[in-house]
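Pair request: fold both.
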Amino acid sequence: MNERIQQLAEQAGFIDRGTNHTAYMNFDHEKFAELIVRECAEQIIAKGTDWVDFAPSQTGVRPEYWDMAQQIKQHFGVK
């Protein structure tokens, strides 16, 4: 599993007690999905800051990148 996804899974309650099987005792699937959506939106925003010199804005992110990130979060109901 990708290290970042594993970190997000742990934040959502995934418990791995060093065994070869997965344990979902406290795993919050909804929180895990929300964390992934937030991570994706943050990556878009980060990419949008690469171009700030060409299109400065109040948020420090190119407006179209900011809008894309907000639309993704809104689509999945993440604030």
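--- second member of the pair ---
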Amino acid sequence: MKLAVIAGDNIRGFRNKLGVSQEKLAEYADLHRTYIGSVERGEYNLTLHTLERIAKALKVEPNMLLIKDAWKK
């Protein structure tokens, strides 16, 4: 499985656990909502800087976004 897909799945999972919309997450991370949607679908390779911003908005450590199914634990 591609790392971008794993990250996207985790971002979606952690976002849903927090009960926030893509729009709210984008606001918290200072990103565009459509970008968050594309990232969740694994369509973009994230930069480390963006990964860090999203992780902070999700209140998780950045490495958690790279571990398969981390949001389920």
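Observation on the second member. The helical segments are 3-18, 22-29, 33-40, 48-58.
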